[in-house]
Design brief:
alpha/beta; TIM Barrel; 8-stranded parallel β-barrel; 12 strands; 38% helix
Length: 243
């Protein structure tokens, strides 16, 4: 199971939010590229980067920081937040992003996900499934869409997507553990790979996730718990990636 550290960006700085609420912002670093280098030193092979300004509709605030991350680290980078068009996807892939995460754009236009898979390949496109309860959220989680969670997952699979990131918004940044019941339900309903996000803060949370023993649960994204040093990335990578 991949252990993937997260770097969330606002105004070029590394921050964390609780449940996506902007007012809860806590700044952890002014140099996100240095944070990426630290994660790489501890053994990370992937880094999850989110342009929060982009997700909230503010474009251009984090381009320099993302480019610096790509130049500083040899880790594969998956990027989400404010990516709305095929042109956006192509630009980031050409800059060196390994795979792009489509959230709001895929919810509003599911056909975009299929077009992106066809043009760039299934390995380079991920659907972000961000849900509050059973309802999928959009635009930085500030709005709820008409999509039910299970229906959106099925729509992404039908579009040719082969990997999703599932975030339980109510648990994000709260440290209360992943939503194991929903993760298991999603995993059993689809052949897509699943990366779990939201609420993981203790070793037993990861042990429980791995304990589901479902092959398509591929990894877990960790954020606040790493920054607060509640979890040590290098230790987790040794346990779950055998490195």
């Amino acid at each position: 199971m991949l252990i993937i550290p997260a770097i969330d960006l606002m105004e070029g700085r590394c921050v964390r939010l609780k449940q996506g609420v902007q007012a809860t912002r806590k700044i952890y670093a002014d140099d996100p590229a240095a944070v990426a280098a630290q994660w790489e030193e501890e053994g990370a092979t992937w880094i999850h980067v989110v342009d929060l300004d982009g997700a909230f509709g503010r474009t251009g605030a984090n381009g320099r920081a993302i480019t610096a991350i790509l130049r500083r680290t040899g880790c594969a980078v998956e990027l989400g937040g404010g990516i709305r068009t095929l042109e956006d996807i192509e630009a980031w892939l050409e800059l060196g992003v390994a795979r792009v995460i489509l959230g709001t754009a895929a919810v509003l236009r599911p056909e975009l996900a299929g077009e992106a898979v066809h043009r760039f390949g299934a390995g380079r496109i991920v659907a972000g499934v961000d849900a509050r309860g059973e309802r999928v959220a959009i635009r930085g989680w500030e709005e709820e869409s008409a999509w039910q969670l299970a229906d959106f997952v099925a729509a992404m699979e039908a579009a040719g997507v082969r990997r999703i990131i599932y975030t339980d918004i109510a648990r994000d940044g709260e440290g209360s553990g992943p939503n194991l019941a929903r993760l298991e339900a999603i995993a059993r309903s689809t052949g897509m790979g699943i990366i779990a996000s939201g609420g993981i803060s203790r070793p037993e949370h990861l042990a429980a996730l791995a304990g589901l023993a479902l092959a398509n649960i591929e990894g877990a994204i960790l954020g606040t718990a790493l920054y607060e040093k509640e979890l040590i990335l290098a230790d987790l990578i040794r346990v779950y990636q055998g490195e």
